[in-house]
């Protein structure tokens, strides 16, 4: 099932210098645009802006995720996060991006109809951890490659997700993984403009955002993805901070305290302090001592590079040696992976077996 992100969000401050007007044109109502044609089966999540139900579209018996957004009390109409999510997903058509099937507008509420997936990556990792296991190594490689392709697709269309975390990555029973929840996504253009720092869940927030850099772009997603891949490899969060300063210190303990020699300009960032403790470079947390392939470790550390200019991009990541052993012929093109790829020395059956807990 697809649990909706339960964590509450603050209302995001208006980003400087941006005035956007959205126009929606709705065709004559069809069967899919009548909410009475959807039978709700169960509530699968609830958040600040809506409730998500597992539902069936009666005419075809198709399973969907139905997100209900109430408009009562909203003085400005549809919440900005919902408008942003609709507009972004209408622009993105990729096998590793969740599909927005329809938008149903009523007087007091809006329904977003998404394709239904059975589980998110957070729940799946937790289930594996309870059994003292981690995700199959071949499946981790496949998931990582698919996510790199999806992010490369988004970034090539000048869209930053800004909220990548395991809860927003949905998986199916066949090894496919998809990016969801584009409520904080933002389209960018050159020249870049200052943007809000009230984005991303703490554990996956890039250091430039924590240090209040006003202008950032695609590298913040690459940092989040590096932290997610590291977590898949070890079953524990790489940087599990409980406040912004603790988050910074968790990063420093693994990567060392940054300075001008490794990150030019860091000392000029608003929240950087010369009084920060000087931590030596450490290791990625791995309490269960899982074997981490050297190429996987190299990929993670290059995506967790302090300097955003030097941080590995998704396009570079797709060419990393960590993915050399994938059966890339399964993927029809760089941008459109249809089904997962697996390590050539592991059977597909063994890799798919890791998904049994999803059922």
What order do the helices and strands come in, and which of them pair?
Elements (H helix, E strand, L loop, with lengths): L37 E9 L4 E7 L4 E9 L9 H12 L8 E6 L3 E7 L3 E2 H10 L6 H20 L2 E2 L8 E3 L5 E3 L6 E2 L19 H4 L8 H16 L9 H12 L38 H10 L10 H4 L30 H6 L6
Antiparallel strand pairs: 1-2, 2-3, 3-5, 4-5, 6-8, 7-10, 8-9
Helix pairs in contact: 3-5, 5-7
Measured between the Cα atoms of the first and last residue, the distance is 9 Å
Can you tell me the CATH topology of the largest domain?
Transferase(Phosphotransferase), domain 1
Named at the architecture level, the CATH assignment of the largest domain is: Orthogonal Bundle
Shape: globular
SSE order, one letter for each helix or strand: EEEHEEEHHEEEEHHHHHH
Please, what is the CATH homologous superfamily of the largest domain?
Answer: Transferase(Phosphotransferase) domain 1
Radius of gyration: 21 Å
Low-confidence stretches: 1-29, 332-359
Helix/strand structural class = alpha+beta
* Number of β-strand runs: 10
Helix content: 25-40%
Strand content: 5-15%
In the sheet with the most strands, the strands line up as: 1-2-3-5-4
- Quickly count the domains: 2
CATH class of the largest domain: Mainly Alpha
Tally of individual helices: 9
**Rounded mean pLDDT score:** 81
Largest sheet: 5 strands, antiparallel
